[in-house]
Design brief:
Layout lengths: L8 H29 L12 E4 L2 E4 H4 L5 E6 L21 H9 L4 H4 L3 E7 L3 H11 L6 E4 L3 H4 L7 E8 L2 E9 L9 H6 L28 H6 L2
Parallel strand pairs: 3-4, 4-5
Antiparallel strand pairs: 1-2, 1-5, 3-6, 6-7
Length: 230
Amino acid sequence: MKTPPIVSPEEWRAAREKLLVKEKELTRARDAMAAARRRMPWPAVDKEYWFEGPAGRVSLADIFEGRRQLILYRAFYGPEVTTYAEGGSYPERACVGCSFVADQVAHPAHLNARNTTLAFASRAPQANIERLKQRHGWEHIPWYTLTDDFDKDFDVDQWHGTNAFIREDDRIFRTYFINNRGDEQMGNTWNYLDITALGRQEEGEDSPEGYPQTPPYQWWNYHDAYSATK
């Protein structure tokens, strides 16, 4: 392998400072993209959708768990799945890519603190989902069984993808959708918030007037401390 030049610490710092200019440009572009997402129009979800959860049949509204926003990832786990790593198969394994996504999901308490719920949905029955979650240590991810055309209606019947929704009074609206390589960024709390209609909800963020915002740092906490306040 041909390596880069070997340099002194001073030369390395100079090269790093030069690259940092481009990194800051990328950060500002990412912030601008998130701000544009917060200004996307909202199509209403007027059709009813039903899922099976650990406690039985639930509606799309139920999956919000009382919060204002929902991020719902369509994970391919079921008899229809064909993308396994060598030696894997259903029901012992889910799609290898979707499993990779699940491995990266941060503790949901921080999303919950921003009035946002994260959940997964698949075609597999609940008994298989619960076994899969226990095997891989994914107990912190709420995971539901699809029972109708939700996946087809929200562009995730042929491939994985992440939909974002918001509740206004008794109505639900779809606010954003990301798939393909866009899902590479998912798992991190900040990246999840950046695809939602309300964003990170911190002061100084470029959001429409009246959107909820609080000072940075002050809402951050240890995840067990969030749980203790409920």
